[in-house]
Design goal:
Layout (H helix, E strand, L loop, with lengths): L1 H22 L14 E18 L12 E4 L2 E12 L4 E5 L2 E11 L6 E17 L6 E14 L12 E2 L2 E14 L4 E11 L4 E3 L7 E15 L1
Antiparallel strand pairs: 1-3, 1-12, 2-5, 3-4, 3-5, 4-6, 5-6, 6-7, 7-9, 8-11, 9-10, 10-12
Length: 225
């Protein structure tokens, strides 16, 4: 008998789920969370930093067509979110956080790698444009500008292998989706981050041909509100 009750229970749950899927009915989670003028949260995520170089004199490698190669790694992000509702579909957001990453830079003609460890205090000011909510999800696009303090820049250390500017400026664009759960809203987003200013001060002999150096990055963040 217990088996029959279990089977009947599973059939009932399956039929209820199908009824909601095909009828378009949903139980709305957190129905009032987007009504609030101010909202707060935090984010956790991953990053991948790369560097774009412009050279004083172009000396292409036969194999890669580049003077320098960047060996990128996966880093970690953590921070807070403050959001101000401007309209039903538009928010302005401040997302101060810290990102950690390590990359390697080497010349095409050598195996020696200069390691660049980066710890950034990253402060973006963003506009978030959201589509109308459909049941328990809501896609959005986001864009804006940011400033970043590179705590590992070595700007004032003339003996460092690579010296970069401490204060840098970026523009950012991305996409994401708000997922509404019973107790919270989860917002995965993928964002591109691009430096506006030249970050290069000086480097090793392999980098003497570098004129400018700009950070490029991808952030995959999971925001909880």
């Amino acid at each position: 008998m217990k088996k029959y009750f279990a089977i009947l229970g599973l059939l009932f749950c399956f039929s209820q789920g199908n009824a909601q899927i095909f009828s378009g009915e949903r139980l709305l989670n957190q129905p009032d969370i987007d009504v609030k003028r101010w909202s707060w949260g935090y984010f956790l995520g991953f990053n991948k930093y790369d560097y774009s170089f412009r050279y004083k004199e172009y000396l292409p490698s036969p194999s890669t067509g580049k003077d320098l190669i960047v060996e990128t790694g996966i880093g970690f992000n953590v921070g807070l979110v403050g959001s101000l509702k401007l309209s039903n579909n538009l928010d302005i957001r401040l997302e101060p956080g810290v990102s950690f990453n390590t990359a390697g830079i080497k010349a095409t003609y050598t195996t020696e790698v200069d390691e660049v460890s980066s710890t950034h205090v990253h402060i973006p000011l963003l506009l978030k444009f959201s589509a109308n909510r459909l049941n328990n999800f809501r896609p959005f696009v986001v864009g804006g500008v940011s400033t970043s303090i590179n705590l590992s820049s070595n700007e004032n250390n003339p003996e460092a292998n690579i010296r970069m500017t401490t204060n840098n400026y970026f523009y950012e664009v991305g996409v994401g989706i708000d997922l509404y759960f019973y107790y919270f809203k989860l917002s995965p987003s993928l964002r591109g981050v691009f430096a506006l200013n030249n970050e290069f001060i000086s480097g090793t002999a392999d980098m003497m041909n570098v004129e400018t150096m700009h950070t490029r990055g991808i952030f995959l963040n999971f925001t909880f509100q």
